[in-house]
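To assess whether ligand presence alters the predicted conformation, the chain was also submitted together with adenosine-5'-diphosphate. Input:
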Amino acid sequence: MPPALLVENLVKTYGSLRAVDGVSFVAGRGTVFGLLGPNGAGKSTTIEILEGIRRPDSGRVEVLGIDVRREARRVKERIGVQLQSSSFFPHLSVRAVLELFASFFERSLPVGQLVAAVNLEEKIDAASGTLSGGQRQRLAIAVALVNDPDVVFLDEPTTGLDPQVRRALWDVIAGLRDQGKTVLLTTHYLDEAEKLCDHLVIIDHGKVIAEGTPAGLIADNFQRAAIEFPAPAEIPADAFAALPGVAKLQRSEEAGTTTLYTGDVARTTAALFALAEQRGATLAGISIRTATLEDVFLKLTGRKLRE
Ligand code: ADP
């Protein structure tokens, strides 16, 4: 079975600007695939080419094995695209909005099933203009699902929403994957990408600069975690340095703390507590920091995703 998305050596130029400069990736079916990158990286251009809205200069672009450049219409039947929720008529009810969009397709899902998929049942008769931000985004996802697509494109679906509302949407997005759909997601929230995405591609200046699972990307870029604690006077520094897994020890005289960098947090932590107990010392205020996708992004692009 061909993959959900296949992009090979994709190039798109605007005048002298190579907005997409030889991008390649593959998204497996039934996965949440994240496309990340700073503003202007070429994400939207890549997505619009996959959706058949923009034509590339060169490269291979296939959705579910269908060549997008040659059969854009066939692709459109199989994909769902999240529109800006501001484009819905505010006086129409949720039901009417969904019926309207469903009428554009030969095959569509019943409205009841659509509202259930995004947990919007209780708002089915409410005017779309009266929905909260999170509810509007859920309606936008429901609209993207009207034709029961195999691949769903969600472009920053949680931007501007409260953390709690964002988490509710994560469940909706994970639910799409559970139904076997493939989701292409862009987001400015790296915790969201880390939590939701099975595979990530990071692009910058039109090129792929890293890809992998969230955990894989973190492990590739940061081999060590940091264990930090106020150094007890009873134990000399070289005793900490000799603990298993410790690659580096750093002392801050100013803060009065010792930091151990380790490639094996569990082993080092266990040995650290054993050592303290043996010497009759207490370890209060210990903290363990591991790298996040935010650290990876900063390291690779030199920028934070949200500026
Ligand atoms: P992203 O979605 O990652 O922010 P875009 O794909 O929107 O990036 O843009 C990539 C680059 O291409 C940017 O430098 C942008 O200014 C430029 N660009 C996008 N669309 C056009 C266009 N229609 N005409 C000219 N330049 C464009």
